[in-house]
Amino acid sequence: MNPNNINTEFTLPCGTVIKNRLVKAAMTERISNPNYEPTEGHELLYKQWAKTGAGILITGNVIFDKLHTESAGNVYFGDETMIPKLKKWADAGKTLGHHIWVQISHAGRQTNRFNNRHPLAPSHVKLKKTGLFGKPKVMTEDDIHQIIDGFVKAARITKKAGFTGLQIHSAHGYLLSQFLSPKTNTRKDQWGGSIENRSRLLLQIIRKVRKEVGDDFPISVKLNSSDFQKGGFSEDESLAVINMLNSESVDLLEISGGTYENVAFFMMNDEKTRESTKRREAYFMDFANKVRKLSQIPLMITGGFRSFDFCNEVLEKGELDFIGMGRPFITNQSQIPEFIEGRIPVLENMVIRTGFKSLDEAAEGGYYAIQIIRTSKGKGFKPKLNPLRCAAFLVSHEFRKSLSKKK
Ligand SMILES: Cc1cc2nc3c(=O)[nH]c(=O)nc-3n(C[C@H](O)[C@H](O)[C@H](O)COP(=O)(O)O)c2cc1C
Predict the structure, then answer these.
(1) Is there an atom of ligand 1 within 6 Å of 111 CB?
(2) Is the CB of residue 304 below 6 angstroms from any atom belonging to ligand 1?
(3) Which one of 85, 109, 117, 317 has the largest count of C-beta atoms within 10 Å of its C-beta?
(4) Residue 256 CB–ligand 1 contact under 6 Å
């Protein structure tokens, strides 16, 4: 076995060469200024992350519609006058000559009430979550075309600002993921019904974005393996979408899973995770094997990877092409260069729990949000934070930042 498959190059279908197989997955930064612009905080944060030597750094969600933020503090990619400021962010990510890709997203019904009481969504189906989300407004045909244009414009700005690739966010229950799911998309027109119709928006966006950025610019798609909900987007449907993606020009498929109603993508790192998942370390590996049988698109899984040997093994066996990692880039940042070289065997997994099941998700999210904000201010990682305070932080952040935003 090659002793180190992580530290090897990979050539994407568009011809771009990536220096190694470790990718920092998207993690929302929440640190824009009130004008939705990137700040010195972004530069500091991405200079730090660049030092890890990861082949690609994927930014957190960015938006092209200020009325549909994923989180307060998202950066706006809908206005070309922002390009000089965005360029500084892109440059920070490229400090060591590696890649920085932008994750373009629209939150749809997962936009919280502080930002929009009636967010756009494919259908009227409201998010079942503690009163923080309003009843969605059903999108018209015109709204749908504006979404396509929004993704295309954000892609143009991404490229012009010097970012080296982009990711279309079609996972985690955001707008494109809402279109894919039969639970949230009950439309009777060409955008709803069969899986082909529910995928239409994603496919049109990919085609138009490709036309905009040209053949040699990397495009990634993030997709759920499933929503982990009864009646939601299933594994079989996800495989059907991947089958359709085979005919599109996609350079990297990232697999994750879950929505705000079941945040599988970051709550599966605890003791109660089922045995087969623990054995395979990364949560979506079993699904990856099914994807491999039907698709040649370069493949990455994100969620749970922590040990060098396991990452190395799945690359060696050809089960994956890239390893996506999120939280270790916060908790173990300084160890990552040595991890890539095989000199650190395991990146310690942290589990943040309050003792109250209903607050654990907010505590886990709040803990990492606080750490990202600390890094953006030049402060170090602080392992011990009160989980209950972390939980409270997330909600208060949305509220305070929304008040200061310029619409
Ligand atoms: C603080 C935080 C913010 C996140 N923000 C995003 C995001 O903006 N976009 C996204 O696709 N996933 C986001 N995720 C999910 C991660 O990309 C990743 O799927 C998840 O953390 C599981 O990987 P891990 O076990 O390596 O952390 C976020 C996760 C965390 C912890």
Answers:
(1) no
(2) yes
(3) 109
(4) yes
Dihedral sign, CA of 181, 183, 189, 195?
positive
Place of tokens 């706006």: 76
CB 367 within 8 A of CB 343: no
Are residues 119 and 111 in contact, defined by beta-carbon separation less than 8 angstroms?
A: yes
Alpha helices, DSSP H only, in 227-284? 235-245, 264-267, 275-279
| DSSP-assigned states of every residue in 163-187 | --EEEEEE-TTSHHHHHH-TTT---
Rounded Cα distance, 71 and 323, in Å? 26
Which pLDDT score, from 0 to 100, does residue 129 have?
80
Q: What is the average pLDDT across 47-61?
A: 98
Protein residue with least CA distance to atom 4, ligand 1: 27
d(CA 219, CA 213) in angstroms, rounded, equals 9
Beta strands in 77-178 (DSSP E): 99-104, 120-121, 137-138, 165-170
pTM of the model: 0.96
Residue of 265, 277, 364 best suited for mutating to test ligand 1, as the one with most atoms within 8 Å of CB: 265
